[in-house]
Amino acid sequence: MDSGFVIAVGTAVLLMMAVFIIIFVAYYQQKQAKQQLALKELQEQHRRELMAATFRGQEAERKRLAADLHDGIGTMLSVTKMSLNQVERQLNGDTLNMRTALQVQKTRAMIDETMSNVRRISRDLVPTTLDRFGLLPALEELAERASEGDILVRLDCPDDLQQLSSPLSLTLYRIAQELLNNAIRHARATQIDIQLYCLHMNNSAGEVRLSVIDDGVGFDFDAIMEDKRAGLGLRNIESRLSVVDGHVTFDVAPGRGSQIHVQVRLEDAETVGFMR
Q1: What is the DSSP letter of 273?
Q2: Which of 110, 149, 219, 247 has its CA 20 to 30 A from that of 102?
Q3: H-type alpha helices, the chain
């Protein structure tokens, strides 16, 4: 047999083997990449489910604490006030002196203030208006309660706001609550605007946008996030949004007002485990 033919055949076989090996390696790498992608998706889904379960647990604990405050401490304070009124009537029968009368009035005022604080804390823990009437009335109530003294909180939201699911409404309410508290307590803002809109996209379910804009002193975002204690609220916002595939943009800097924008795609929010 001609040696040239043998070499040609051998070369062709080697080339075929090389091509086969290349194809096999490429197929194996592609399969590995798909498996890794599927694994990452499963891990991300698992992380979301764990985060959602954490927030559900937090809300359940808030409801338990609110019930304890209302049914336990609130009832006790009401009974204490009734008892004080009865004591005052008895003392009036024995000619209540001015000093004792002032002490009774002071004690009653302290009880009334404590009862108001208990009701306020209970409302903060469990926004009953949100459950009963929806997100818009709940935000209106939040803005009204925060507007006192030199602080003005305005809500900019269309009356025909699209009906959102209860979990998403709760997520947006908690984020607005956190940002509003930060603006008042830390940024020392006197004017705060809460904006909420639902935008419709072509070939999409649209998205909901929440913005909180204030005239406060601002803050250093990087420095706050590096501080585990100071940045807890902001990290909590990012964690809540990660559950619904949302994201937040912080337009902030020291010495000027802050603008914080939240965006959530509605079709994504409705498909994650937290929304079920």
Answers
A1: G
A2: 149
A3: 3-68, 75-93, 98-125, 128-133, 135-146, 166-185, 221-226, 232-243, 266-269
